[in-house]
Design goal:
Length: 152
């Protein structure tokens, strides 16, 4: 993927909105989802992959930068949430699935692999968002409201 100043989410907005609108909350959503979408939605393991895909969609980034952002949510500096043994296999999996694309760049004597979201990655995030918007479960809404609340 060639790097430019335009955000990938903006570039494909019109095309992706057409696909997004094809998914109807009243129909059988599983018929409109792709295999990888279902994999991401099936378990809590998919949450980490979805979060990493979402972070890559926000800006062109590399693995160490992703680990830093993810570990900001850790309540303890001694216990990181995600290390290289967790993040890099997810990045490779997302790249193999065609949801992100990596390019190597030289930084001094080192090479760093930068990741960008692909059109398919953008479409996957939009389908997952649609599934969540169609299946709002009161207990999950309450859980996230409580967990994210500043009140004790």
């Amino acid at each position: 993927m060639e790097y430019n100043d335009r955000h990938p989410m903006e570039e494909s907005e019109k095309m992706q909105n057409e696909q997004y609108n094809e998914i109807d909350c009243n129909s059988d959503l599983s018929k409109k989802l792709k295999e990888y979408d279902i994999k991401l939605l099936k378990s809590m393991k998919g949450f980490g992959k979805t979060m990493i895909l979402w972070l890559v969609s926000k800006e062109r980034t590399h693995g160490y930068e992703l680990m830093t952002k993810i570990n900001q949510i850790s309540p303890s500096a001694e216990e990181p949430v995600r290390g290289p043994s967790k993040v890099y296999p997810v990045l490779h999996d997302l790249e193999k699935a065609g949801l992100i694309e990596g390019t190597w760049e030289a930084h001094g004597k080192r090479k760093v692999k930068y990741y960008e979201i692909t059109e398919e990655g953008i479409a996957t995030l939009k389908r997952i968002k649609k599934v969540f918007s169609c299946h709002k479960i009161p207990i999950l809404e309450e859980f996230w409201r409580d967990m994210l609340s500043k009140k004790e």
